[in-house]
Please model this.
Amino acid sequence: MGTDKDTRNDSYTAPAKDHSYLIRQCTFEDIERVKEVNEKELPEDYPFFFYKSILDNFPESFLVAHTKDDPNNIIGYIMWRIEKTPSKNSLRLLNKAHLVSIAVSKDHRKKGIASALLSKSMPMIGKRNVSEYVLEVRVSNYHAINLYEKFEYKKEGIKKRYYKDGENAYFMVCPAD
Ligand code: ACO
Ligand code: ZN
Model:
């Protein structure tokens, strides 16, 4: 509850969201650091050339978050790719935007960084005439599932033993409008 004095004070800033980070497109030079964040935060690791090929093909939606004081201090990333799939009722190929991977360093979580990465990258990959956005997520990863549900992704099914360790994945979908 704010007093009259609080609401009239121009210098008051809402404490809810942290803006100690910035978001920009990934560059070739960032890949090593992105790879490090991925290896620390997720059991699914990728070789350098995989990041390079995502960057070559879908640069507009490969975003990184860095601390405000150091543009090379990467604390989060998101990357997407397009997959072409036949539509259900014609031979036409549909573009699906597939969320390949998102992660935020542990020390910087719960500041809205993943939300910012998602909300900035979806319209970018969305320009490629996509019919829907899709992703897989571990059934136990409720933080990520919460995040995706906030962005109106719905669980469409389960992929059994999707991960190397045998865990199932939810297949989640968000229609493009
Ligand atoms: N507890 C509960 N809900 C959480 C938590 C938490 N600790 N962290 C995030 N969420 C959910 C909430 O719904 C939150 O919304 P709210 O703040 O309005 O309540 C929402 O996520 C967004 O929170 P952000 O601060 O934007 O998310 P954050 O920057 O902390 O990153 C992420 C979330 C990416 C899931 C992070 O926890 C992470 O890096 N985890 C490890 C890597 C990972 O699991 N990545 C996803 C794998 S699936 C894939 O890549 C396709
Ligand atoms: Zn928790």
